Amino acid sequence: MEIIVKEEYKLHGLEVGVPIKPMLVKEAKADDKKFNDVIKRHGSKSACEIKYDGYRINVHKNDDGAVRLFTRNLNELSIDVFPDLVKYTSGLPKGIFDCEMLGLDEGIIGFNAVKKRVRKEAIKEDVEKYPLQLRFFDALMVEGKELVEMPLSYRREILENYCENVSLQTYFSEGEELERYFNGVVERGLEGLVCKNPDSKYQFGARNNNWIKLKKFLSLDLAVLGVYQGEGKAASLPFAALVLGAKNGEKYETITKVGISNKQLIEQIDSMIGGHYLDEADERSVFSDRIHSRTYARKKPARYVSANSNVVVEVEAMNVTRSKNWHTCGLDEGKAYSLRIPRIIRVRDDKSSLDCNTMQQIREIYGN
User: What percent of the chain has pLDDT over 90?
Assistant: First the structure.
């Protein structure tokens, strides 16, 4: 397939082997109008892909066939640790490709396989027991030609010409059809959908309406700012609850307190903090003065955590609320954002606190 690059397209100086910030996905509003809203924002037609639970990976391939893998945080993963992934790159030309590293099984089983394999060295038994795959969904450079300014629909056409293991993309122009498809995906135990504007270009590190995520529950990545000691049997654990925050400029504002009982998750978070707890909140973490009052005394953390610790967790919630409470996220006229019925899903060890959700994104989800 001949790749036609128009002269007016801006060049970004992409180089194979030099990692780039991947384009990000925006959370849809948590209301019943979200399906029609997606179609409207994408100009009457949306290209929808099933959202699988895995690790976002940029694949770089040189002229000599050498392959390098980079995470969304621009860290390199050695291809030698993932020998089972080589076959998915064999048909690719020189270029840069966006994809997801997944298990062969769907849902949580597949994601657990990814977690077992993400380590510094290859273990033969794990390679055989937890096989992985690369599922491609975008092409940024092919045969030395930059594609990022081209429409997504054209980038996909080029990608599919070179690659077989490509994400299924289904077009929808009606909100009701999109909703039915979404419900079927969720019933299979999958995360949801990523809906993309077919005419959109690839925007490095951007999170906007061109790529919108639809999930059954609201999903947010938040920074750990403090911990609470448990009682009874839970007293022997490092903590039993967390206070989490969203980023606002250089600061992190609290948005929820959420209990955590999964011992494995607790130990993982505690290990990432590495004993670097604080007696008081650091200057980047914004807590309400209300936690020092008798009414909100139980909201004051037993210990604080620096936002620099880069401990990020994924949280599901029914929706975002706004009221007079003890949080500081978007605090204005005594009201702040908080989460309704939150629960911790997993640790995002592929993200730093710089990548967590922002107050502005919370505001957009809430709808004001």
Answer: 72
| pLDDT tens track for 50-74 | 998 889 999 999 999 999 999 998 9
Strand-pairing partners, residue 56, are 100
Same domain (yes/no): 160, 258: no
- Cα–Cα distance for residue pair 368/190, rounded to 1 Å: 30
Q: CA triplet 259, 334, 227: central angle to 5 degrees?
A: 20
* Residue 7, helix vs strand vs coil: coil
Mean pLDDT calculated for residue range 21-31: 86
Based on the structure, what is the number of domains in the chain?
Answer: 2
pLDDT digits (tens, 9 = 90+) for 80-123: 999 999 999 999 999 999 999 999 988 777 888 888 888 767 78
DSSP class per residue in 75-139: -EE-GGG-GGGGGGTTT--SEEEEEEEEESSSHHHHHHHHHHH-SSS--HHHHHHS-EEEEEEEE
Per-residue pLDDT at 8 exceeds 80: no
Alpha-carbon separation of residue 316 from 115, 256, 319, 328 (angstroms): 20, 11, 9, 19
pTM above 0.90, yes or no: no
Q: Which of 216, 237, 260 is the last residue of a domain?
A: 216
Residue type, 266: I
Nearest to 155 by CA among 102, 210, 207: 210
Residue 37 has pLDDT above 80, yes or no: yes
Torsion angle, CA of 289/292/293/299, rounded to 10 degrees?
Answer: 100
Q: Which of these three, 172, 190, 216, is where a domain ends?
A: 216
| pLDDT reading at 31 higher than 70 | no
**The domain that contains 64 carries what CATH number?**
3.30.470.30
Question: Domain check: are 84 and 125 in the same one?
Answer: yes
